Amino acid sequence: MSILGNKLIEMFELMFNHQGPLNWWPGEDTFEIMIGAILTQNTAWKNVEKAITQMKEKKILSPEAILTIDEEELSQVIRPSGYHRIKAKRLKDFVKFIFEKYGANLIKMKTRPLYALRDELLSIKGIGAETADSILLYALEKPIFVVDAYTKRILYRHKIISSSKDDYEDIQKLFMENLETDVALFNEFHAQIVNIGKNYCKREPKCELCPLKDFNLKR
DNA sequence: CTCCTGACTG
DNA sequence: CAGTCCGGAG
Fold first, then answer.
1. So what's the pLDDT on residue A216?
2. Of A51, A97, A125, A167, which is most buried, counting CB atoms within 10 Å of its CB?
3. A192 is near strand C: CB distance < 7 Å
4. DSSP type of residue A81
5. Residue A58 in 3-state DSSP?
């Protein structure tokens, strides 16, 4: 294990021991996780839950329903998630891809190699690196590390990276080249980071209360 | 860089 | 009442 790998594990354990297992999307429906990953783009998860609840009530939380429903109507149903017009289009573009490439068979989709699938997802308008990786890790259980704004901020503040705007793929490599390739670890690690981000590592950080307050910082 | 959007927080 | 939210496109 590399020096950096040990540091990352230390960071993970500090977070995990304070916050406990976060159980992100355990046993949740694969398709629902994919939809959630798109709806949560720059949006608080609480608002995404409302949108998903409404989709269930209207019985449109399926590839078939999203493909056929009127885009305007879809945008109204997902309205609580914000950016509802553009996200309605993104959902439709996404399910079109699902149908064209995999006949909406998510089991079949899962058999495809990780990076082939990643390239396909990135070719869809509205699916960027973070959304693609969230779908790959949390819905399809592929071993890839999800990087987000919190990840960059936390690594920067704890001096693991020297600039707060390092490249997405570089930061992803930093985790993947120094940790065991483990879906469960990647899943929990990112979840822990997000929780630290929204509870402590905000723009105005609450360092005194943070589980990472003594991590890699000279006092 | 700006726009996209509603809901919630401090 | 401004800032922010599990970003991405133009």
1. 84
2. A51
3. no
4. G
5. coil
**8 A C-beta contact, residue A2 and residue A178:** yes
Footprint of strand B on the protein (CB under 7 A): A 42-44, 46-47, 50, 79-80, 82-86
Spell out the domains of chain A, with CATH numbers in brackets.
3-22+145-209 (1.10.1670.10), 30-139 (1.10.340.30)
Is A185's pLDDT higher than 90? yes
A168 CB-near residues (< 8 Å, 6+ apart): A129, A130, A147
Contact A127, A38 (CB under 8 A): yes
Residue A11 CB lies within 7 Å of the nucleic strand C: no
Closest nucleotide (CA of A130 to C1')? C7
- Residues A60-93: tens digit of each pLDDT: 999 999 999 999 999 999 999 999 999 999 999 9
pLDDT digits (tens, 9 = 90+) for A133-173: 999 999 999 999 999 999 999 999 999 998 776 799 999 99
Output the six-digit token pair for A102. 């995999």
Contact residues for A60 (Cβ-Cβ < 8 A; gap 6+): A66, A69, A74, A77
